[in-house]
Design brief:
The structure is a homodimer. By secondary structure, chain A is α/β, with parallel strands linked by helices. In chain A, α1 packs across α2, α3 packs across α9 and α5 crosses α7.
C-alpha cells in the first residue's frame, strides 16, 4: 500500500501514489474548475486515482492522504478564503477526502508540506531539526523541531518571511509592514536589489539592456553566472540579508540545517558564501559553525505532491506511535 | 504515587514530591557541596527523599524524576561545564538519578523547566502554544509549540534572550554580540535604561538619591509605583523593546500567550501596556490581538522545583502515549 499526495491548484488537481522512499508509483490529474463542488472534486480525484492505481497494479486505498492547497489551515483541515478556488469558504477539505478515500487525511500548507517532503525524501532526510525556507514569489518557511513540523495555535507557525529585519530595513512589504525578509529574499526582492544597484552606479551589466520592469531573478542569475560583477553583488547582498536573518532564527529552534527551496533558491550557489558569512558573523556562539546550508533536492515539478504525501505519511506515523 | 522534582543548586539540592495538580506533598534538601561525587549526591537525595516520603505517608518511589540544574543539556541528560558545581564535567546526572530512583528521569534546563511548570501548574495551564520569557539576571525562554517544550538539535532551542533586535540597538551583550533582548529586558538592562534616562534629563526622581552603581530593578519599580515619571518611563521603554521583539517571535511558533517570569517580570504590571502596544504595532496581521500576555502564577520560591517535577511528568506522559 502507498501514500497518496494531492495538490489542489486553481486550474488542476494533481495526485500521486508515493512509496516510502518517495518514488511516484502512479499519478494523474483532474481539472479543479470542472468540479461543481469540493465533494465533486473528491469524487473525481477518487475515480481517477482508482483508475491510475489499477493500471499500476496497486491497491487504490492509500495508507494516508496528504493534501496541499492554497489558504490551508492544517489545524482545522479547512481551506479558508482561497480566492483561486471556485467554491465558498471555509471548505472542510480534509473531512471530505477522508470520507471519500476512507484513509487518515491531513491538510498541509505549502511550506509545511515542503518541509515534510524534504524531511521524508529530500535534502533533510534523517534530520529532526531544520528550517525550510521557500524563496519564491513570497518567502515561506516550515520549521521542523524535535522531529515535528511545527503548526502553532492556528497553524501559522513559521511565517519567517514576515519577520522584520529591524530598523535600517525599510522596504515596504505586501503585508503592510516594513523590512520583512520577504522584501529582500523573494523574487521581487532580488529584482528590487538589482534595480537599486543599477541606479547606484554606472557599472556595466547586461541587465541594462533589459526593460527595468521586465527584469526577473532568472535574468540576474544568468548575468551573475556569466560573471557580471553587478549581478554577483545582487546575490551577495541577498545572501547577506538571509544570513543575518538566519542568525536570529537559530535561537528559536536550534536547527541542524537550513534547506532552501523555490525559484530564487535555484541561485543558492550564488548566495551560499554570503549567507554563511553573514550568518556566522551574527550568530550566538552556541550555534556557530554547526548549521548546514542545503539546497532542496526534491524535483521542483513534483515537490508539492511529494510534500503533500509526506505530510500524510508523518501524520499517519505519529498517530500510530 | 507522586512526581519528584529536584533542583540542583551550587549550595543546596532541593527536592519535592508533587501531585498532579502541583501541590507539594513532601520536601527537603541536602547540601550539594557536601557530596563527594554526583553518585554521593544522588544517594543523599534518595535517603532524604525516602525519609520525607515516609513522614508524609507516601511511597518513596516517584512516577518520574525531573531534575533542574545549571548548564543542563536536556538531550544528553548531562550537566556540561557547570562552574558552580564541585565535580568535573560532563556529569551524566539523569542516568545517575534514574538508577538511584529506578524511575524515568529527565534533565531540564532552567527555562524549559519553567515552561513545563507553567504549562502543568501555572498561568499557561491548558495552553499548548506559548512562549515563556524569564526576565532576571539574564533573559531566557522556553517555547511550547503543539504541546511540546521545544528542545532542538542540542537542547538549545529558545535562546530568545540572545535574538538581536537589529540595528539601532547597540548595547553590548555578555554573549559578545550587540543589541540582544537580554541587554534591555534583564535586570542589568532595566538599570542601564534607568541610568540613560537619568543622564538624558534633570527630571526629578528618588533614584537620584541612590549611588548609580547600587540601583536595582527593584528600586526602579518602587519609584515607579510611587508615581515617579522617570521610573515609569524606564518600564515603558523596557516594555516597548520586549513588545517589538515579541512581534517577531510570534511568527515562529504562533503562540496563544506569552508568560513572563523572573525578578524583572515582577514589574509586569508596569510594562504590560507598553508591551502590548509595541507588539500590536509591529506584529503580522495573522497574530494581531490574539496573543495573551500573562504573568507567571507559580510561587517564585518553588518555581524551579515545580518546573523540574513538571518536566518529568511531561516526559513520562509522552513516553506512555
Amino acid at each position: 500500500m502507498y501514500y497518496l499526495g494531492i495538490d489542489i491548484g486553481g486550474t488542476n488537481t494533481e495526485f500521486a501514489y508515493v512509496d516510502p522512499s518517495g518514488c511516484i508509483i502512479a499519478r494523474g490529474k483532474v481539472p479543479t474548475r470542472g468540479a461543481a463542488s469540493p465533494l465533486h472534486l473528491a469524487n473525481a480525484v477518487h475515480s481517477a486515482a482508482s483508475l491510475a492505481a489499477e493500471e499500476a497494479g496497486i491497491s487504490p486505498t492509500p495508507l494516508s492522504v496528504g493534501i496541499g492547497a492554497p489558504c490551508s489551515n492544517p489545524i482545522s483541515g479547512q481551506i479558508e478564503g482561497a480566492t483561486d478556488l471556485p467554491w465558498p469558504s471555509p471548505i472542510p477539505i480534509a473531512d471530505i477526502f477522508q470520507k471519500q478515500f476512507n484513509a487518515p487525511t491531513v491538510l498541509a500548507n505549502d511550506a509545511n508540506a515542503a518541509a515534510a517532503g524534504e524531511m521524508q525524501f529530500g535534502a533533510a532526510k534523517g534530520l529532526r531539526n531544520f528550517i525550510m525556507l521557500t524563496l519564491g514569489t513570497g518567502v515561506g518557511s516550515g520549521i521542523v523541531c524535535d522531529g515535528n513540523v511545527l503548526l502553532g495555535s492556528r497553524g501559522f507557525a513559521g511565517e519567517l518571511g514576515h519577520v522584520s529585519l529591524g530598523r535600517g530595513f525599510s522596504r515596504l512589504c505586501s503585508c503592510g509592514r516594513k523590512g520583512c525578509l520577504q522584501c529582500y529574499a523573494s523574487a521581487s526582492g532580488v529584482v528590487a536589489t538589482a534595480l537599486e544597484l543599477l541606479a547606484e552606479s554606472d557599472a556595466p551589466s547586461s541587465l541594462r539592456d533589459l526593460e527595468q520592469s521586465d527584469i526577473t531573478p532568472k535574468d540576474v542569475a544568468l548575468a551573475a553566472e556569466e560573471g557580471n560583477e553587478l549581478a554577483l553583488e545582487v546575490f551577495r547582498r541577498t545572501g547577506a540579508v538571509i544570513g543575518e536573518a538566519l542568525a536570529s532564527y537559530a535561537a528559536f529552534s536550534d536547527p541542524d540545517a537550513v534547506v532552501f527551496f523555490g525559484g530564487v533558491a535555484r541561485a543558492f550557489p550564488l548566495m551560499h558564501k554570503a549567507i554563511r558569512e553573514a550568518m556566522e558573523a551574527n550568530i550566538l556562539f552556541l550555534y556557530k559553525n554547526r548549521i548546514k546550508l542545503l539546497q532542496s533536492s526534491l524535483p521542483g515539478a513534483d515537490a508539492a505532491i511529494l510534500g503533500a504525501a509526506a505530510a500524510g505519511m508523518l501524520a499517519c506515523r505519529s498517530n500510530q506511535s
